[in-house]
Amino acid sequence: MKTLNDFDFKNKKALIRVDFNVPLDENFSVTDATRIEAAKPTIDAILKQGGSVILMSHLGRPKGVEEQYSLKHILKTASEILGVPVQFASDCIGKEATDAAANIKAGEVLLLENLRFHKEEEAGDVAFAKELASLGDIYVNDAFGTAHRAHASTTIIAQFFDEKKCFGLLLAKEIESLNKVLKNSEKPVTAILGGSKVSSKITVIENILDKVDHMIIGGGMTFTFVKALGGKIGDSICEDDKQELALEILKLAKEKGVEIHIPVDVVAANAFSNDAETKIVNVKEIPDGWQGLDAGPKSLEHFKKVVMESKTILWNGPLGVFEMPNFANGTVELGNFIAEATANGAFSLVGGGDSVAAVKQFGLEDKVSYVSTGGGAMLEMLEGKVLPGIAAILE
Ligand code: AMP
C-alpha cells in the first residue's frame, strides 16, 4: 500500500483529493470543520518536506455552477486550520487553474473550485480527469468519504500518474483500521449492528458473518427478527418482507458458528415521541399500541458481557432512537461498554453516520480506537466491495 512515506515531495506539486464537503450555515460559515482538520496531517507532511499542495474537493450536490456551493466559502476556515493562507482558483480546470498551479511555490497551498461544478466529475470523464491530472506531479487520495465513487478526481485520474500516486494519511488510516476488523483481527471479534432497517444492513450482515464470532443485532432491526421468531412486537418498526431473510441469517450464523445476540427486553413507548409513556417489557411480549424504542436493562447487561470479552469490536448503528433523550440510554451505555473494553486493550472501530453522531454527542470519540469518517464508503467496505478509489491507487 503506497503512502506519503514512499515519496519525497521536495519541490513537487502534490495534487490531493480531499473531502472538504463541510456543512455551512446560512451565512456560508463552516459549522463543522472536522473534515478539514482530518486532512491537515497529510497537507502538513507534504509542506514540511518542501512540497506544494493543490487541493481538489467537492462541496454539496450542485447542478452546474451554483454560488452557494463555492469552495471559496471555506477559504478562511481552511487557512486558519492549515496555518497558511490558502490560495484559490475559481475553476478546477482551464487557464486560471493551470496558471495558479504552475505558480505555487514550495510551502504554498492552492484550493481549486468545486469539482462538481463540472458534470464530468461525477461522470468519471477521462478528458476532465486528464486536465486535473496535468496540475500536479504526484496524486494523493485522502478522501475516504468518496472512495466508493468512480469519479474523475477519485478514481479515473489515477491512471495518469503511473507510479506517482499514493494514499494520504487519513485514507491509509481508514483502510488500516477496517483491515484490523476485517482481515487481521484479534479474536473474539464482535460486530454490533443497529439502526432502523434490516434491508439497509443486510449485505453488511452477510459479509460480516464470515469475520466475526459474535453479532449483536439491535435498534429497529430487532423487531423483524423477533417477529420472524414468533414474538409479539406490538407497533414496533418491522419489515415484514424481510422476516424470511432474518431467519435465513440466523440459520447461516449457526452454520458458521457465529453467536447472534438480540435484545431480550426493550423500553417500549405508547407513541413515537420523547414524551410518550414508557415501560420495560419482554421483547417477545410487546402489547399492541406500544413500540420498542430502546434496548432494555437485561439486554444491556448481556451486551456488556459480550463486548467486555471481545478483542475486536465494530459498531455501526444505534441501539435505539438515541435522538430522543428518553430512548438514548441503550446507545450511550453501549458506547460506554465499548470505551471500557477499549481501555482494557480491545480495538474498536465505530462507523456509519448515526453511530458517529452518537459517539460525538456522548463524548466518546477519544475513548474508541478509531472513528471512521466515511459512512457510505465504510459500509461498502464492510459489504466486502473493493472501492474504486482504493483500487485505482493499488493498480
Ligand atoms: P440507520 O440509518 O439504518 O443506521 O438507522 C439509524 C436510525 O435508526 C436512527 O435515526 C434511530 O433513531 C433509528 N432507530 C434505532 N432504533 C429504533 C427503533 N427501535 N425504532 C425506530 N427507529 C429506531
From TrEMBL:
<dbReference type="GO" id="GO:0005829">
    <property type="term" value="C:cytosol"/>
</dbReference>
<keyword id="KW-0547">Nucleotide-binding</keyword>
<feature type="binding site">
    <location>
        <position position="201"/>
    </location>
    <ligand>
        <name>ATP</name>
    </ligand>
</feature>
<feature type="binding site">
    <location>
        <position position="35"/>
    </location>
    <ligand>
        <name>substrate</name>
    </ligand>
</feature>
<feature type="binding site">
    <location>
        <begin position="352"/>
        <end position="355"/>
    </location>
    <ligand>
        <name>ATP</name>
    </ligand>
</feature>
<dbReference type="Pfam" id="PF00162">
    <property type="entry name" value="PGK"/>
</dbReference>
<comment type="similarity">
    <text>Belongs to the phosphoglycerate kinase family.</text>
</comment>
<dbReference type="InterPro" id="IPR036043">
    <property type="entry name" value="Phosphoglycerate_kinase_sf"/>
</dbReference>
<keyword id="KW-0963">Cytoplasm</keyword>
<dbReference type="GO" id="GO:0043531">
    <property type="term" value="F:ADP binding"/>
</dbReference>
<keyword id="KW-0808">Transferase</keyword>
<feature type="binding site">
    <location>
        <position position="149"/>
    </location>
    <ligand>
        <name>(2R)-3-phosphoglycerate</name>
    </ligand>
</feature>
<dbReference type="GO" id="GO:0005524">
    <property type="term" value="F:ATP binding"/>
</dbReference>
<keyword id="KW-0418">Kinase</keyword>
<feature type="binding site">
    <location>
        <begin position="58"/>
        <end position="61"/>
    </location>
    <ligand>
        <name>substrate</name>
    </ligand>
</feature>
<comment type="pathway">
    <text>Carbohydrate degradation; glycolysis; pyruvate from D-glyceraldehyde 3-phosphate: step 2/5.</text>
</comment>
<comment type="subunit">
    <text>Monomer.</text>
</comment>
<protein>
    <recommendedName>
        <fullName>Phosphoglycerate kinase</fullName>
        <ecNumber>2.7.2.3</ecNumber>
    </recommendedName>
</protein>
<feature type="binding site">
    <location>
        <position position="116"/>
    </location>
    <ligand>
        <name>(2R)-3-phosphoglycerate</name>
    </ligand>
</feature>
<keyword id="KW-0324">Glycolysis</keyword>
<feature type="binding site">
    <location>
        <begin position="19"/>
        <end position="21"/>
    </location>
    <ligand>
        <name>substrate</name>
    </ligand>
</feature>
<dbReference type="GO" id="GO:0006094">
    <property type="term" value="P:gluconeogenesis"/>
</dbReference>
<feature type="binding site">
    <location>
        <position position="292"/>
    </location>
    <ligand>
        <name>ATP</name>
    </ligand>
</feature>
<dbReference type="GO" id="GO:0004618">
    <property type="term" value="F:phosphoglycerate kinase activity"/>
</dbReference>
<feature type="binding site">
    <location>
        <position position="35"/>
    </location>
    <ligand>
        <name>(2R)-3-phosphoglycerate</name>
    </ligand>
</feature>
<feature type="binding site">
    <location>
        <position position="149"/>
    </location>
    <ligand>
        <name>substrate</name>
    </ligand>
</feature>
<feature type="binding site">
    <location>
        <position position="116"/>
    </location>
    <ligand>
        <name>substrate</name>
    </ligand>
</feature>
<feature type="binding site">
    <location>
        <position position="323"/>
    </location>
    <ligand>
        <name>ATP</name>
    </ligand>
</feature>
<keyword id="KW-0067">ATP-binding</keyword>
<dbReference type="InterPro" id="IPR001576">
    <property type="entry name" value="Phosphoglycerate_kinase"/>
</dbReference>
<dbReference type="InterPro" id="IPR015824">
    <property type="entry name" value="Phosphoglycerate_kinase_N"/>
</dbReference>
<dbReference type="GO" id="GO:0006096">
    <property type="term" value="P:glycolytic process"/>
</dbReference>
